[in-house]
């Protein structure tokens, strides 16, 4: 591991052999059980983390609630200044943090750096936004009255994030929540707890340097039971959760039962439609990066290629040829394209999917398999695979978090491809490859893609932070990151002010005393 500078990176990020996994700013609590973080890269134990007990959680909640009282009164642009400093710290630590992401999660170092870049980008976005938390002014129907709306912070925002973007998704939520005047409690995935600790250390340092209350940024660690502390807790007005559809349904129902708000970013089953007018070279880059990037573990990963029959063989040959060039191995070695899956459970699910697609009548055109031998000791490295399949196959309808791509054929009009693309329960990301304006516009029209993200001549993954990120249907309907996604972190208030000596009622109602 030290060959790739991991030890140095851990030191820079303040990761120790055993870490307290619960903290409010720099105050750390430790009374839970211990979890071990093993790298999928080489199977080595990186460090241990103490999880959060209920008593620890209550302590954290108290500091967060206290911190909110002063943080909410700080002018939003001054909160933006803190986010600016946080972004600067991320710039400084981009390499070590990118490396830790790569080593603990298994994505390529390039993608680890890209993830930290998303954090930096959202900070910059949030700094500008801190002067633009706009509400409308409306015209009152009554004389001498003024009506407008304003946005106030919600309070303590709970963040539950997944292993696949172990740092960026937290930053999308936190940077916006902070400028909105909220404080955050974050439960990272129990598969990537060290990424959480590294981020928390960075945030704590910035808060401390500015003499700000500890509880503005809090961290808790553990499995779903620790997440549940927040979902059932009335003191958490908003729970933002990223993960599986199964998890999202539980979170949504639990939070809704107490009429809290939830922001959900759940599974995707993203497709690229390849029409007869597609640029094949661009299609290959978009599809291959989309399917094998992050070893197929992005929620935006390309899972289905819906190809017109007239160019089917041409596309098939080009994509298969590209797959033959893929280098699989240590993601910190920049000559490799594909790193490991997160753990051996994920490998088992990958194997099950390959078996299932064959059982359902699919045809493997790029064989999968688990790699063994030197460099693959962790048992987490798998071969990206492609199967020819039918849209209705159960496995094709299901999101497998692994590099398995399904080729589906369509004939006739682009409408037929859109129907296949929309014919799944998920609705996150979608794309069309075409130089035909009519096809592109049909894809984007009211009867086109039903997803939260719809791209033309771009793959399904790799969204920029400036747009609202999220999806429809069982993807959960939430929107994070850019555009006006900030509004979910605030409560809206309509204010009507009467500056006359009369009290006229609205709707012309007369009520004389
Ligand atoms: C995720 O997989 O949870 O669009 C987030 C993308 C990245 C974010 C993915 N910007 O692929």
UniProtKB/TrEMBL annotation:
<dbReference type="InterPro" id="IPR044638">
    <property type="entry name" value="ALDH7A1-like"/>
</dbReference>
<feature type="domain" description="Aldehyde dehydrogenase">
    <location>
        <begin position="33"/>
        <end position="494"/>
    </location>
</feature>
<dbReference type="InterPro" id="IPR016162">
    <property type="entry name" value="Ald_DH_N"/>
</dbReference>
<dbReference type="InterPro" id="IPR015590">
    <property type="entry name" value="Aldehyde_DH_dom"/>
</dbReference>
<dbReference type="Pfam" id="PF00171">
    <property type="entry name" value="Aldedh"/>
</dbReference>
<feature type="active site">
    <location>
        <position position="265"/>
    </location>
</feature>
<keyword id="KW-0560">Oxidoreductase</keyword>
<dbReference type="InterPro" id="IPR016161">
    <property type="entry name" value="Ald_DH/histidinol_DH"/>
</dbReference>
<keyword id="KW-0520">NAD</keyword>
<protein>
    <recommendedName>
        <fullName>aldehyde dehydrogenase (NAD(+))</fullName>
        <ecNumber>1.2.1.3</ecNumber>
    </recommendedName>
</protein>
<dbReference type="InterPro" id="IPR016163">
    <property type="entry name" value="Ald_DH_C"/>
</dbReference>
<dbReference type="InterPro" id="IPR029510">
    <property type="entry name" value="Ald_DH_CS_GLU"/>
</dbReference>
<dbReference type="GO" id="GO:0004029">
    <property type="term" value="F:aldehyde dehydrogenase (NAD+) activity"/>
</dbReference>
<comment type="similarity">
    <text>Belongs to the aldehyde dehydrogenase family.</text>
</comment>
<comment type="subunit">
    <text>Homotetramer.</text>
</comment>
């Amino acid at each position: 591991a030290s060959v790739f500078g991991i030890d140095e990176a851990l030191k820079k990020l303040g990761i120790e052999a055993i870490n307290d996994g619960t903290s409010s700013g720099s105050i750390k609590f430790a009374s839970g059980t211990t979890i071990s973080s093993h790298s999928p890269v080489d199977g080595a134990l990186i460090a241990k983390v103490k999880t959060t007990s209920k008593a620890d959680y209550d302590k954290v909640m108290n500091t967060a609630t206290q911190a909110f009282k002063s943080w909410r009164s700080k002018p939003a642009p001054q909160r933006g200044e803190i986010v600016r400093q946080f972004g600067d710290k991320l710039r400084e630590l981009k390499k070590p943090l990118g490396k830790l992401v790569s080593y603990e999660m298994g994505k390529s170092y390039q993608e680890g750096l890209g993830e930290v870049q998303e954090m930096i980008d959202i900070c910059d976005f949030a700094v500008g936004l801190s002067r633009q938390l706009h509400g409308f002014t409306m015209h009152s129907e009554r004389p001498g009255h003024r009506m407008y709306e304003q946005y106030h912070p919600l309070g303590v925002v709970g963040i539950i994030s997944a292993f696949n973007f172990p740092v960026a998704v937290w930053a999308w939520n936190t940077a916006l929540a902070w400028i909105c005047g909220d404080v955050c409690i974050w439960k990272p995935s129990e598969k990537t707890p060290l990424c959480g600790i590294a981020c928390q250390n960075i945030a704590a340092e910035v808060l401390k340097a500015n003499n700000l209350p500890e509880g503005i940024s809090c961290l808790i660690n553990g499995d779903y039971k620790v997440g549940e502390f927040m979902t059932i807790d009335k003191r958490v007005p908003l729970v933002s959760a990223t993960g599986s559809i199964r998890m999202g349904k539980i979170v949504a129902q639990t939070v809704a039962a107490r009429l809290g708000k939830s922001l959900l970013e759940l599974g995707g089953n993203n497709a690229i439609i390849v029409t007869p007018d597609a640029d094949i070279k661009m299609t290959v880059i978009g599809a291959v990066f989309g399917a094998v990037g992050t070893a197929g573990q992005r929620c935006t990963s390309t899972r289905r290629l819906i190809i017109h029959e007239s160019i089917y063989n041409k596309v098939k040959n080009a994509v298969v040829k590209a797959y033959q060039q893929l280098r699989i191995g240590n993601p910190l070695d920049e000559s490799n394209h594909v790193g490991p899956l997160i753990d051996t459970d994920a490998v088992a699910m990958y194997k099950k999917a390959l078996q299932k697609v064959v059982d359902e009548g699919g045809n493997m055109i790029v064989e999968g398999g688990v790699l063994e031998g030197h460099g693959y000791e962790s048992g987490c490295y798998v071969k990206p695979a492609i199967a020819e399949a039918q849209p209705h196959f159960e496995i094709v309808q299901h999101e497998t978090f692994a590099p398995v791509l399904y080729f589906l054929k369509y004939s006739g009009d682009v409408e037929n491809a859109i129907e296949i693309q929309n014919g799944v329960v998920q609705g996150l990301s979608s794309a069309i490859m075409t130089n035909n304006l009519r096809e592109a516009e049909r894809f984007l029209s009211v009867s086109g893609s039903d997803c939260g993200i719809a791209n033309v001549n771009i793959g399904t993954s790799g969204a920029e932070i400036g747009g609202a990120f999220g999806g429809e249907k069982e993807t959960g309907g939430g929107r994070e990151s850019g555009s006006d996604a900030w509004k979910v972190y605030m409560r809206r208030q309509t204010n009507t002010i009467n500056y006359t000596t009369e009290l006229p009622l609205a709707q012309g109602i007369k009520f004389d005393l």
